[in-house]
Specification:
43% of the residues lie in helices and 23% in strands.
Length: 175
């Protein structure tokens, strides 16, 4: 019965990023779907060009339809928007909504959990412009370990393998 969009932006300095680009912000779109009995489902996607307009265009094909018809709703959203990011946000929101309506986990919608636990990992923020790589990575790993993580994903590849492999080896030995 109701859809709302929220944009979330987080800026940071210095610029940082993976091996291929620098950035100074992250931006996302949150989609909130509400049905007549007040149950709410949330979805999200990156704030890429056209995402908000596509989600707004999707609303007419969603209104008045039950969340249990998610596959048909998603097919119509894909057809109307031709926007993968918008379709993804709707899919996430519909799954969240259906699970909440049924009082089950999202995993239960797809046949149940496949495991009882997973190892969570922390992810590197990437490279920081103007800062040397090794202390940045070391600080990120130290913070992750202090937060209880036992696994860490580095974003590598801006430097050559010759430059970065010894850094990674030192960090692994120190962990």
């Amino acid at each position: 019965t109701r859809a709302e969009l929220f944009t979330v932006r987080f800026t940071f300095s210095p610029r940082r990023g993976p091996s291929v680009a620098w950035g100074s912000a992250h931006a996302y779109v949150l989609l909130r779907l509400e049905v007549v009995d007040g149950v709410v489902g949330w979805g999200e996607t990156y704030l890429v060009t056209g995402a908000v307009a596509a989600l707004e265009a999707a609303w007419p094909v969603m209104v008045g339809r039950p969340a249990r018809d998610a596959a048909a709703v998603l097919a119509d959203v894909r057809r109307v928007t031709e926007h993968e990011y918008a379709t993804s946000a709707v899919a996430i929101a519909l799954d969240d909504l259906r699970a909440r309506q049924l009082g089950v986990s999202i995993a239960a919608l797809y046949g149940g959990a496949r495991r009882t636990s997973v190892l969570a990992y922390a992810a590197s923020g990437g490279y920081r412009e103007g800062e040397p790589t090794e202390p940045v990575w070391s600080g990120e790993i130290d913070a992750a370990v202090a937060a209880g993580f036992r696994a860490f994903k580095l974003r590598i590849g801006r430097g050559s393998q010759r430059e970065e492999a010894p850094i990674i080896e030192r960090l692994v030995r120190a962990s």
